[in-house]
Here is the input.
Amino acid sequence: MLTAIVAFAALAAFFGLLLGYSAIRFHVEGDPVADQVDAVLPQTQCGQCGFPGCRPYADAVARDEAEINKCVPGGEAVVLVLADLLGKDPMPLEAGVEKPKALAVIDEKECIGCTLCLQACPVDAILGAAKQMHTVIADECTGCELCLPPCPVECIHMVPVGEDLGSWKWPFPATAPDAAIHPGAA
Amino acid sequence: MQQYQISTNPRRLRRFHGGIHLPDEKELSTGQPVAEAPLPRLLTIPLQQHIGAPAKPLVQVGAWVLKGQRIAEPQGYVSAPIHASSSGTVIAIEERPVPHPSGLSATCIVIKTNGLDEWARLPKPLDNYADLDPSIVRERIRWAGIVGLGGAAFPTSVKLNPGSNQPVRTLIVNGAECEPYITCDDMLMRERAGRIVQGVSIVLHLLGARECLIGIEDNKPQAIEAIRLAVAQSDIKESTQVCPIPTLYPSGGEKQLLRVLTGEEVPTNGIPAQIGILCQNVGSVAAVAEAVMEGRPLISRYVTLSGRGIAQPQNLEARIGTPIGELIRAAGGITGDVRKLVLGGPMMGFTLDSEQVPVTKATNCVLALSTEEAPDPAPALPCIRCGKCAEVCPANLLPQQMYWYARSKDLDKVQDYNLFDCIECGCCAQVCPSHIPLVQYYRYAKTESWAREQEKRDAEHARARHEAREARLERMEQERKAKLRKKKEALAKKPAAAKVGAPRDAKAAEDPKKALIEAARKRAAAKKAALSKEGVTPKNTNTLTPAQQRQIDAAEARRQPAEPTATAKED
Here is the structure.
């Protein structure tokens, strides 16, 4: 009887110490899950998910405080990857339909050079100075639309990016046969 | 391993995995010699006919161009120039439909021909290429705009420069032409064997390769004979071997042909140069000979017009930029019921929506297929996991597994099954008893994967820029705060300094503003006193109404009790 108690107490103490030591020795700064989620997000910083940027949304998703279907620019692809990553069921996009990618274009005749859009752009994709015409650097624009509301003269428009030979994708075959077998089931 | 022994060929051939036998339909278009296609009224020459960056136009609308004149220059290393294929006037540089499965348009230079077909001044032939530095010869090949004419259209000058760390010992010349209907390489070998062998000699010199193997499927006996004869008469007969190979689709695939001829395997995601082998199509080799020995740029090519919907199936030498419709007319036009027009072969080609698209450097074949030849695909049925696709796959992949994952859009998993080793030959779809369009799934998965990769790179870039911006804003905020703090500190230090420097009026030094007010007050009082001494009083109280007087009295009364405290404060 006494041997058993002593043995178990010793074991408990040993494992307790081991766990305590591991907690200190293998401590990870930050949230690795949030990092993984953040890596999946498209980084437009658009805030359409209701969070002030991609990182805050990633943190919320990692803490299970937000659904995985809020990222509008990421679309279905991001939902699927997040579902796979977090072991959740895929769900339809909260916004419903995916928007085609568009870039902001400043109508340079109407721009008054107020610099408000410069301050709103999360990726510094707008070039300009006070009372000078502004312009969007097309290669850097992520299409987040954050520059639209601050513009006092509404001279910024979203122009959809057309398809060219380089960006064209083969469509998903339309005649997908119905099969009951789940991929990889066999 | 199965082996084929051909009595006239001492070389031991290997076999690649899978492959299928197809009715070759080649005799349709080999009946007559290759004719030159008539000069079209308009030439539409796309700026991108090769893998890599599109070429940059060198001419403007309205410019007068000559045949063989360079009208667009390469942008970047992996790119190729474009030459005018006849003389005339540039009437437009704009988006026109181009031969592409998407049916999209791309920038083209449109030339209205003048019928004279006047040549530009061409560079001198490099007859003595054997004594020249390989880089000079390579520069000529680049100038001529030669790209892989087998279909991939990769710039030949780039391919012929594998780098000193990858010495090439074997050159393989691809004359297999394994896809049904297509006979342009066959005809080229029959009619221009001498040019091809000359080209082989040039390429061997360029690469410093020891041997050359010319692989030709054994269903082209005339081509084999012609090339054999040409090799026997040339100075490279010691190092060059003509190898007839068994007819089996897709033996013309680069990796498959390499396997058949040498028994070696190209590493996954690798290129043959990594194992010291380089593959060139017979057409490209002939074009190299023309560029080096005649100074002629690549402005025309052999194109097969075939299928039972073409009145006189044949091969034509077509100028780059000739509309497909004109070629079809030159071959007698369309006859009977045509279900579809196909660019390329029936296995790997794609359906054309318009006859207006031009011939490009990569165009090898135009098919007008009757309903009988290209029946409507039967509706796809569920996969029964028979495994036939895996048996015929020449790349030794598992098409069925790739299909499942591509269908469920699990792109990572498809890539785990080496999706990118798929050559899209179509064998799997051909043998599938459920008629599943397997290749479409792989093409979808490939382009989707590339798009995802691109999106990922864009996202990384945006993240870096966003973080840089955040850091900058943070830094600016810190700097602003630091400035404010400094100012405050400076203000706090100042009175102490003033005390040391000017201790005369301690009260004033404590608050310079108060001192100023005090001084102004004293000045005003002195002035008032001086004026009252002279008997001058302010005139604004001279003519007052009783109401005004009352208001003044009330104000005076209010001020009276406040005055003592105010003076007390001042003291």
Q: What stands out?
A: Confidence is low (pLDDT under 50) at residues 176-186 of chain A. Chain A touches chain B at residues 38, 41-45, 53-54, 77, 80, 122-125, 140, 142, 163-165, 167-173, 175-181, 183-184, 186 (CB under 8 Å).
